[in-house]
Predict the structure.
Amino acid sequence: MIIRKLYKFEGAHIVRNCSSVPCRENIHGHSYVVEVFITSDRLDDGFMVMDFGLLDKVKTFIGSFDHSYSLWQGEDSDFKQFVYRYNRRVAEIPVSPSAEGYALLFFYVIDRILKHTDFQNGEGRVQLHAVRVHETTTGYAEASRNDLRWIDFTFKDIHFTAGITEQWDSVAWWDVMVD
Ligand SMILES: [Zn+2]
């Protein structure tokens, strides 16, 4: 059985080194749609794979990119300084903020969130199956478990500014996953 939950965020970025000049040389934004697919080997006591209510941290995490600037860690220091100086909501990430980069990053983090979720309703082996990130209405990138081999970063490489974390209920849920 497979379930899917959809999230949306309005995000700004530059995708350095991509082929498209407008995309690699200008700050611009997209209305992103993120689909999270989850599987299990059996249904819980409510005849569900899992209750979507247990995905509150996934909502918080993806919401952290809403009205935020996604800053690639590889930008030069002048540009980073500019971004931090004039933006309150900055997500500094170790992957380029392409749809592929987001899909990989989101898979990595949401997988960890699920592993830290306390299931108490007879759920089976709940597993993240795929994360699909739509940058436009016509194209998406999808990451699955096999793509985790491309992960060459850790949680410590992901940073959210106070403008983002002050919207969270607490930072404890994130700190637990970093360890
Ligand atoms: Zn773009």
Q: What stands out?
A: Residues 13, 15, 23, 28, 30 surround zinc ion (CB under 6 Å). The radius of gyration is 17 Å. The chain has a mean pLDDT of 97. The beta strands are 2-13, 28-39, 68-72, 90-93, 127-134, 140-144, 159-160.
